[in-house]
Amino acid sequence: MAALVLLVSGSALVPAMANPSWASSRGGTDGDELPRATVLGTEVAIRADVTGPDPGALSPGSDLAPAPLLPEFKVPASSLQVLQASTGQASWYGPGFYGSRTANGERLRQGTLTAAHRTLPFGTRVRVTNLWNGRSAVVRINDRGPFHGNRVIDLAHGAAQELGVASSGVAQVKLEVLR
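Above: the chain sequence. Below: its structure as C-alpha cells.
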C-alpha cells in the first residue's frame, strides 16, 4: 500500500508518495538504507514502511473516521462584506449534545463558534449581534435548526457565551450573512 509522507526541504513541506514498487524501480536499496529522492533540489529519504488504516475502510459515518478539523477563528469585521441581514430570536444548544454529529457530519465540540440555521448553506459565515447587549460574533453554519417557534438561529454553546445568550437562553439578534 502506498503511504503519504511529508518531506521537509528548507521551510517547505512537500507531499510525496512513498511506494515500495517505486523505490525498487529506482534500483532498490542497499540493506537497511531507505530509498532516496530529490525534492526541490535536496536529496531526502522516503519512508516506505509507513502504514495506517485502509482509507477505503473509513467512511464519513464510520466511528473510525476522524471528525474534520475546521479551525474556529475571529474574522476582522472590516474585511467582510454583508450579503443580507435579518433579525429574529436566537437560542443555544451545547453540553447535552457534545460529541453528537451535526447535520454536516462534524462532531459538536465545546467552545465552538458554530450555529444551526434552517436554510443557509453549510460553511456560511454569519455575524450574529445580540441586540440586547450589543455583543457580536462571527459563526459558521454547520447544523440544521432551530425547529422551535419563530427562532432564526440556534447557537453552539461557545457562540452563545461570546454573545451573552447562555444565561438568558434566548435573545433578539441581528444576522448578517457574510462573504
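DSSP finds two helices and ten strands in the chain.
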